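Run folding on both entries below.
>entry_1
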Amino acid sequence: MVELKNEKIAIPVVLFAGLLWSFGPLVVRYMNDPHMVPWQYIFGRGLTIFILLNLYLYFEEGMNFYKNYKKIGKSGLIGGLGLGIAMISFIYSITNTSAAITLLCLAAMPFFTALLAFLFLKEKISLSVWISIFIATIGIIMAIGNPGKNSLIGFIFGIASSVGFSVFSVTLRWRKETPKFTTVAVAGLFCFVLAALMILIKNQPFFSTSYNSTMFSLHGTLVCLGLILYSIGSKAIPAAELTLLSLTEVIGGIFWVWLPLFGINEIPSSNTIIGGFFLFVSLFYYSLIMRWNKRHIALN
């Protein structure tokens, strides 16, 4: 696998990965009634992710890439399941609330990861990290404001998506030798198979309109390309910078659906903006703590 050891080159690579991910909410907003075809979306996106990641592994490792599946173990299966649930929860979140609230829920992932690592891996949480988690909690509560029924459902699924991603992250710490891309491919396969079963049970067509199917695949492609770029650049960047760089997905995602040029005009509420500010402060503080601890993270 290609690795960048020069931080000056790795930073724009990771920034571009976050930029690719940030277009996800915009793609969802361009779909025709995505709330009416969630399982078709999950089916198309999961299949795209599974195929593209296996193609990438094939070109990286040759015909022996399939042997990674033999090494996946319990941690890979749990991580794939968590990531699959995160992917499924995402569509239910963003179709029931604003993109801003969904993305702010996802931005809280580092704190859920810290809590799960504390509970299951016995990793200690310092007082400073507890403070940042407390600030983030205030931000999330303020961001949701006084929600309607649908908005509350979207918020709950947003939190579920963030927790699912955190489960994936914790499994990477549990067994670091687990093939990371293979775990993500398993998540895509899980989404694909579960969606296929739900579609059969509901007696629905496997594919939506050709336009929607294209959007489903486009979103899956953005996820894959961003993941590959992020993984390539992540080993050369300290965790502090990675945490801050990951905010490009949140900020960009909120900006694209608001920008009048794209025709969505989804303006965040005052509560969401204030809550987002608290969350960004907590992330910045969390990043400084990680910098002081000189910790590094990576997907590969």
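>entry_2
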Amino acid sequence: RFEKGSCLKVLDICLGLGYNSASLIEKTKEKEINLTWWGLEIDKRPLEIALSTPGFSSNWSSIVKDRLRLLKKIGGWNDKTSQGRILIGDARKKIDLIPESLRFDLIYLDAFSPLHCPELWSEEFLKTLSQRLCLGGRLITYCRAAAVRSSLRRAGLQLSSLISKPKTQNQWSDGTIAILQVEDESEALQRVECFPLSQREEEHLKTRAAIPYRDPRLNRSAEEIINTRTSEQKKSSMEKTSNWQKRWKKTEAA
């Protein structure tokens, strides 16, 4: 849906080494799409490491490398066709520095796994992200955790699954795409390698694994978030996730 001269607004959470956004910058330049980019990252060092590694730099054109270097050096870039800015610090707080009126076509969420970084997978933070999407906007993540998917669904987003190619027994999904209010979901999904959640995935959302990470004021430590969830799971009457796993192993073996 983005044509020459149109504007794509992107938020990259946990930029890391920069592969996602580097690829995006390359593609938007090729297609002559204007890019408005924001990044949230707690530490610039991974980007610094990437830019000093020949194997990384050799993947990209000079314009991509120039923009990434500007992110590292002065925190952003601004030219005729694009602009970008990175905010360093706790994403839960730094997101408030992005103009409230700005709505994103695409949000990358590439934080460490929920068990290692629950702060960025909480019900409250995911709701905050959903409110930053434009109509038809997409949040894309490698994560397929039931807790994350259930929170995204409660935030009003339509869920679909990124499917492995070739699909294997141990790779029933490569991640999640969550879309805000599109009129024709099937048409939207045709443009990417994703599909509605399978029966297996839907049943996953009815197990204790779907109990969300909670961070009401967006200020809890990782330990507090994990402990609260663990306590809630122990008290829950929802199906044990291990039972779901056993049931589907039997189905696959049949």
